[in-house]
Design a protein that fits this description.
2 copies of one chain form a homodimer. Chain A is α/β, with parallel strands linked by helices. In chain A, 36% of the residues lie in helices and 14% in strands. Chain A is globular and about 55 Å long. At the A-B interface, α2, α4, α5, β9 and α8 of A face α2, α4, α5, β9 and α8 of B.
């Protein structure tokens, strides 16, 4: 009998977001006429920027003619997209990268999930708490997270609490950790790290020989000019950090699937015997073996984000969502709720009133205001007592949702 | 220091197809005016079927309007595509599947590479020799293949030779093996398995509690009516086999990226303690954690393959390539070369004359006929002394290539 990877059996039965959907569905069955407003799952609602649409039409046409048809592309992405990324996302911020350090993919979820494949199964892991659950689950399923303890934590994971006491900014762990996940702007708390705060992490990593997994999926939402957009803006970061970027939230690519991963050539891991091994060729080998490139049509769409028109259109989308976030923050604050985030990220992290649990607060808003949110406890033990609200909605609907919340609370 | 997965370091430095490209490039440098004809890497050349192009244009338009925009889709694919797959690829052959048994993805390379994630690292592996190298490499990189031995074989892999003596049809292994990879129509030999031959494998798997990994990427090329298109045409196969399918070679999707994996609900693996675990939910959990669905635009393109016009257009493409294969087989046979395949697959497996090695024969054809092929030894030790030729080319160029080969040999 072929044996299964039993680490998979340790995963909670259902993916957290599916549990939320089940609760929503059972509400819908009993309230078939309810007018639900969704501020839950972080999916965008605005259509793709027109520049991307036009570029993808052109690419589809190319695929329909023999002289312009493209078959297998480079596993790590076409040079036209890689060069646009370097020129527009990095050079203006003083970061210089080589094309061989960029890996285009079908999205950050694949990359943050699969990056563990090139690392030993027994490295120790550090995560902020709360955290995007995929980071944990991908480590659980290969055994790296260890065993689930009674307190809901995993035995080989160091948790760095993000609480009101520390303004939801994690503190450096007291012990050495091999690999630390950081997501900034943060999902779910919507907070950001200043340059000084981010420098602390890079310095910790340099001193402790720690690998930083830096997820910058929400980078485009940064509004304050002094917040770093890339971890490589910090000196020394190329020696310690992998950065993940996504076009999903930047340009509405959640259904089109494109992102990229940066692995600088200075970045190394080690063998048990102490030899240093560059990670760039390891990841290249991984992608050559277990991936076959991103759709040409998709890559042409992503390239269009960097044209002058594309940039304007993306900026307008981001502004639309961030206006929503401001509106939400004002409304929630006006009724005495405590919120973090929402200034440089499309997420608000809302404290439940009256000591309610995440799920109780979630159900209260679902049943009394017909507003769907995400229970904070799904993001880790320190998410208990919070909800995550997202600004990805139509302005009018968000206004309506805020009115309902103000009435019901 | 974060430790790397040292199994990756066991992989030969370069992916085999890159080595071929390097040889071709160095030829081009010294022969800048040479008119190379490529019968090597298995990439298609005909543009996408018009039905797919039209469907993708429509989908791109949908993504540009708020009312029809689609964000995150189901990780395992949209029902419209899954239902089309069941209705057109399986039901006509007497195979009944449920939508929950189909997983749409960005291609078979990802799926055949990642499927090992849900299986223990110490299952024993059986492969035909020669074989598509990705099956081996993905097992090497997680440690399942064991150590590379002096004879070029891996210690935890059972090799089943495909040689002229057995008409390139592998024989059942004498020992029990946990997981066996089968690819039919076969890459690289171009051979197929009759129903009786395939039944032997299913029965072996049922008797030995073996998991079959069945790659049917070239299914659309089958010409003889009695050759099974799906392993599930064999009784009992749902209990023992995972089937992979790809739109890459069926409809020219190599640059668009779409395929699917079938995991029947009867199929189980085991725990060390002997408990049987269904594999369908395990793979679903894998895809929910480490994948975020295939582009909506791509899935609409794939769906169009199953329309009446799409079917006609696909059929014409397949016929074009298979006419090439016939032409090649006739020409090669006429000059006394021994060939397998080319009747139900776009590949020909050609024995090098005069005891030449694969690389020597490759270089001879490159330098004397300016024809690029693939050295058989890249597919395993028993590929030594062979070349793989593919029928993916323009008819006129293939004719020209055959003339040059006839002159130079």
């Amino acid at each position: 009998m072929a044996l299964v990877n039993e680490h998979f059996l340790k995963l909670p039965n259902n993916y957290f977001f599916s549990d939320v959907e089940k609760k929503v569905n059972s509400f819908k069955v009993t309230h078939p006429k309810a007018d639900l407003i969704r501020l839950g799952t972080g999916d965008v609602i605005l259509p793709l920027p027109q520049a991307c649409i036009e570029a993808m039409h052109r690419a589809v046409d190319e695929m329909g003619h023999e002289s312009t048809f493209r078959g297998y592309g480079p596993e790590a992405g076409y040079p036209f997209l890689i060069n646009a990324i370097i020129k527009h996302d990095y050079n203006p911020r003083g970061v210089h990268l080589e094309p061989s350090e960029i890996f285009v993919s079908d999205g950050s979820k694949s990359d943050t999930g699969n990056i563990g494949d090139i690392l030993r199964h027994d490295n120790s892991i550090g995560v902020t708490d709360p955290i995007y659950p995929v980071y944990i689950d991908s480590n659980v399923s290969c055994g790296r997270a260890g065993e689930l303890l009674a307190d809901g934590k995993w035995s080989n994971v160091v948790y760095m609490p993000c609480l009101p006491e520390n303004d939801f900014i994690p503190q450096l762990p007291k012990q050495r950790v091999d690999i630390i996940y950081l997501c900034y702007p943060n999902n779910p708390t919507g907070t950001v790290l200043s340059k000084a705060e981010l420098r602390k992490w890079v310095n910790y990593a340099l001193e402790n020989d720690t690998l930083l997994i830096f997820d910058g999926a929400y980078e485009a939402y940064i509004q304050h000019p002094d917040i770093p957009h890339s971890i490589y803006e910090i000196k020394g970061a190329k020696k310690v950090a992998i950065e993940f970027r996504s076009f999903s939230k930047t340009a509405g690519f959640t259904g089109v699937r494109c992102g990229y991963t940066v692995i600088p050539k200075e970045l190394t891991g080690g063998t048990l015997a102490g030899k240093r091994i560059p990670l760039t060729p390891l990841w290249r080998r991984h992608q050559e073996t277990k991936f076959n490139g991103t759709s040409y049509i998709t890559q042409r769409g992503a390239e269009a984000i960097y044209t002058p028109e594309g940039k304007e259109q993306v900026k307008a989308h981001i502004q639309y969502y961030m206006n929503n976030a401001q509106l939400m923050k004002r409304a929630l604050t006006s009724i005495g709720l405590k919120t973090a985030g929402g200034e440089d990220a499309p997420y608000l992290w809302v404290k439940a009133p009256d000591g309610l649990s995440s799920w109780k607060f979630f159900e209260k808003l679902l049943y009394e205001a017909q507003v769907v949110t995400t229970p904070g406890v799904g993001f880790g033990p320190n998410g208990e007592g919070y909800l995550r609200l997202t600004a990805f909605g139509k302005k009018e609907r968000i206004q309506e949702a805020m009115q309902r919340l103000c009435q019901c609370l």
